[in-house]
Amino acid sequence: MLKKLIKKFLTDVVSNVTEENLEEEASENKTSDFLQLYDKIDSAESKNEDAFQGLIYSYFDFGKAVFKQYKKLKLKHGKDGSQALVKSKVKKAISKAKCSDKVL
């Protein structure tokens, strides 16, 4: 997304602006500010990707733990009983404010 935006800025140059004028403006503006802002955006996007990947792993681990508990209880309590017990254990572990029947 950032790369598309930057590419657009680089390609959407007004036709009546000469290269000489662009060089003058670039020297007048602090180009390092743009570089710093670009680096800040790039860093934030990287952190966002890492956080999203961490979220996916957390969902996977949660599902794995629920399934492991279900398999363990299924031998003794059957399918329906083990589902009810797992649901109950999850509700106890997570506060009622964060856990509703719709989520489960």
β-sheet strand percentage: under 5%
Oligomer: single chain
Mean pLDDT: 80
Question: How far from one another are the termini?
Answer: 35 Å
Low-confidence stretches at least 5 residues in length (pLDDT < 50)? none
Helical coverage, percent range: over 70%
Q: How would you sum up the global shape?
A: rod-shaped
**Number of DSSP-assigned strands:** 0
Radius of gyration: 27 Å
H-E order: HHH
Largest beta sheet, briefly?
A: none
* Number of separate helices: 3
Structural class: mainly alpha
What labels describe this entry?
3 helices; mainly alpha; 104 residues; 0% strand; rod-shaped
Explain how this protein is built.
This protein has 104 residues and is mostly helical. The chain has a domain at 34-103. Helices cover 80% and strands 0% of the residues. It contains three helices and no strands. The chain has helices at residues 2-11, 19-28, 31-93. The longest helix has 63 residues, at 31-93. It is rod-shaped, with a radius of gyration of 27 Å. The model has no long low-confidence stretch (mean pLDDT 80).
